Amino acid sequence: MDVFDLNTFEYIKYATLPIHDTIGYHCFAAKTKDGVLLMKDSNQKTQQMLLLTQQMLLFHKSTGLPIEYIEDKNIFKFHK
Hints:
4-stranded antiparallel sheet; single chain; 51% strand; mainly beta; 8 strands
């Protein structure tokens, strides 16, 4: 997994998934925990809000893997 800052297009982090299988035909579902990172107001101005933790789910076959990315510590947490 790779993390990029979409404001600066800077490469931030790489992590390997804790699995022993090749993944194909998978699905990521994003879920925010601490707020929205970017949003547009009625005047189309971009407002930034601090987002400390990104949560997501990776689905493959009949298994779901909950994943957290903690921005201020720059770490991934994989939950089995």
